[in-house]
Design a protein that fits this description.
The structure holds 2 protein chains of 2 kinds. Chain A has helices spanning 14-29, 52-64, 86-96, 109-116, 132-146, 164-173, 193-201, 236-243, 250-253, 284-308; strands spanning 42-47, 68-72, 99-104, 121-126, 152-157, 179-184, 206-210, 222-225, 261-263. Chain A is an alpha/beta fold. In chain A, the strands form 2 sheets. Chain A has a 5-stranded parallel beta sheet with strand order 7-6-5-8-9. Chain A has a 4-stranded parallel beta sheet with strand order 2-1-3-4, sandwiched between helices. In chain A, strand 5, helix 6 (164-173) and strand 6 form a beta-alpha-beta unit. By secondary structure, chain B is mostly beta strands. The complex binds zinc ion (ZN). The site of zinc ion has 8 residues of chain B, from loops.
Chain lengths: 309, 149
């Protein structure tokens, strides 16, 4: 990998992504061959805000590669509570660990860490800013289950305004040939102007914006659902009015194609009815599994990169 | 008003009237050691009114900061009483610790030692992007004063 850190999804070229996906698939096929791939290595998970799901995924990935983890899961229990700067924490942790994984509520915090760390830094989510390993997970899942990331119609549904996951995914997919987007959201939660101007229009991508799912479901290869977060709304009324408009249930699934993949970054609230879980097209839990394997590939690659450097 | 020409040093001419003081401040010129002539509100053929700053015996100044504060200004390098070089200023590609990020969610709001770094993304709109949070600021006209350190 060109850069020693992973701070945003676009830090990786399409070629580097392909290498990671290939490695992740090899690991999935024969995980027993990789149980000592990172033996003797230590990864620090510095989580300044709790995110059990993401931390488990990283730590499980490292343990399955034969490495070990140290870290904290919320700022209150660490030296940060005593007011240590991110830069100092990153410098100190670099003395113990071979790789740093950081989650922080402030935007750009992992970059501050990377500037003073002497080991590679992975951004595990910095506020509403970037979450590159989520994007890697999304791409990996689609690629593995569909065979490729080109020539497909991707529907993105829910909160498209505030959801960075969605913006990153659109940006990442815009590098592949023949990807069409259908953006399904209420008027109030449409993608922000910069996504339209700087990605969709700038690259001349084929996209359209609709306000309901039913009519577009038959043409989708992938349906990416997102949750509508309560804290995004000024009042309860707006929230209640909007959140239920884009719920995927059995009835809607009946309109979709036989091979449409349903993805979701999880955790869900109620935007996917539980009855959909047993549908073979519901792949969001499978997605979490791919998430761990792509993190294994990433950890291995970054630790090797460091050795070369 | 007369200010003697300098033998060696720098003359920053055609400064937008009112910006001269900011320029002296940000160029970090030690006015205890260096001789500085600061002319405010001189009449100018080009702009109506302008400021002029002359600094004796200093040649190496931060052109990036100068370009950001007032890219209309011209810089003349003086040796032996003559202009040896004229520099046309440009908006710098990258600036450090000149403008501040105003995004309350940005890490620079809590990490006080982190340098504020901005990258030029649109020359015409004079837009800069924060290195950390990607927030975009415009340094057009009066907006600059608000976001300077
Ligand atoms: Zn910022």
């Amino acid at each position: 990998m060109e850069s020693k850190n992973l701070l945003e999804p676009m830090d990786l070229t399409v070629e580097e992504l392909e290498e990671l996906f290939d490695l992740a698939e090899k690991i999935m096929e024969a995980p027993e061959k990789y149980t000592e791939a990172c033996k003797g290595k230590l990864m620090a998970t510095l989580f300044y805000e709790p995110s059990t799901r993401t931390r488990f995924s990283f730590e499980a990935a490292m343990l399955r590669l034969g490495g070990q983890n140290i870290g904290f899961s919320e700022a209150g229990s660490s030296s940060v509570a005593k007011g240590e700067s991110i830069a100092d924490t990153a410098s100190t942790v670099s003395c113990y660990a071979d790789l740093i994984v950081m989650r922080h509520p402030k935007e750009g915090a992992p970059r501050v860490a990377a500037n003073s760390a002497r080991v590679p830094v992975i951004n595990a989510g910095d506020g509403g800013h970037q979450h590159p390993t989520q994007t890697l997970t999304d791409l990996m899942t689609i690629r593995s289950l569909r065979g490729s990331l080109t020539h497909m119609t991707v529907g993105l549904c829910g909160d498209l305004k505030f959801g960075r996951t969605v913006h990153s995914l659109i940006k990442a997919l815009s590098r592949y040939e023949g990807v069409r987007f259908v953006l399904i959201s209420p008027e109030e939660l449409r993608v922000p102007d910069y996504v339209r101007k700087e990605i969709l229009d700038k690259k001349g991508l084929d996209y359209r914006e609709v306000e309901q799912m039913d009519e577009v479901l038959p043409e989708l290869d992938v349906l990416y659902m997102t949750r509508v977060q309560k804290e995004r709304f000024f009042n309860e009324e707006d929230y209640i009015r909007l959140k239920d408009r884009f719920i995927l249930d059995e009835e809607k699934m009946a309109l979709a194609g036989e091979k449409m993949m349903v993805l979701h970054p999880l955790p869900r609230v109620n935007e996917i009815a539980v009855e959909v879980d047993k549908d073979p097209r519901a792949l969001y839990f499978e997605q979490a599994r791919y998430g761990m394997y792509i993190r294994m590939a990433l950890i291995m690659t970054m630790l090797q990169g460091k050795r070369r450097g | 008003m007369l200010v003697n020409t300098i033998q060696r040093g720098i003359v920053i001419d055609h400064i937008t009237a009112g910006r001269g003081a900011k320029i002296i401040e940000y160029l970090d010129i030690d006015t205890k050691v260096n001789t500085v002539a600061f002319i405010m509100n001189a009449s100018s053929k080009r702009h109506g009114r302008k400021d002029i700053v002359k600094i004796e015996n200093v040649i190496d100044i931060d052109m990036a900061v100068l370009g950001l504060i007032d890219h209309q200004a011209t810089v003349n390098i003086i040796e032996n009483g003559k202009i040896v070089r004229k520099i046309n200023l440009q908006l710098p590609d990258k600036v450090m610790n000149v403008i501040r990020c105003r995004n309350p969610r940005c890490v620079t709001s809590i990490e006080t030692n982190a340098p504020h770094i901005f990258h030029l993304i649109d020359e015409e709109a004079k837009e800069y992007r924060c290195e950390y949070c990607d927030d975009i600021v415009s340094v057009k006209g009066g907006l600059l004063d608000e976001i300077m350190h």
